Amino acid sequence: MIVLSQMLDFCGIEKERLRARWVSSAEAPEFVEEINDFVDILKKLGPSPLGKEQVEAVA
Fold first, then answer.
1. Could you give the CA distance from residue 31 to residue 25 in angstroms, rounded to a whole number?
2. What whole-number distance in Å separates Cα of residue 16 and Cα of residue 23?
3. Which of 25, 30, 38, 57 maximizes the CB count within 10 A of its CB?
4. How far is it between the farthest Cα atoms of the chain?
5. Whether residue 53 has pLDDT greater than 80
6. What pLDDT does residue 57 have?
């Protein structure tokens, strides 16, 4: 995860857009909480910086 996080940083992508966590199939409430938390973080970060580069390249 450390190397992948560094690669994302090098590419201009926030490391907060990457998350890995083990959740068992028996932990449905924990899974739902983890996904909702991650979605909230992504919403706060806004659109991917990669999307901005694609729009600028077309313009």
1. 8
2. 19
3. 38
4. 49
5. no
6. 56
Helix (H) or strand (E) holding 44: helix 28-45
| pTM given for the model | 0.70
CB 18 within 8 A of CB 8: yes
Q: Tokens representing 28?
A: 């449905």
Q: What is the pLDDT of residue 35?
A: 95
3-state helix, strand, coil in the chain (%, to 5): 70, 0, 30
Q: Is 20 left (phi over 0), alpha (psi -120 to 50) or beta?
A: beta
Question: Dihedrals φ, ψ of 56, to 5°?
Answer: -65, -35
Mean pLDDT value of segment 4-33:
90
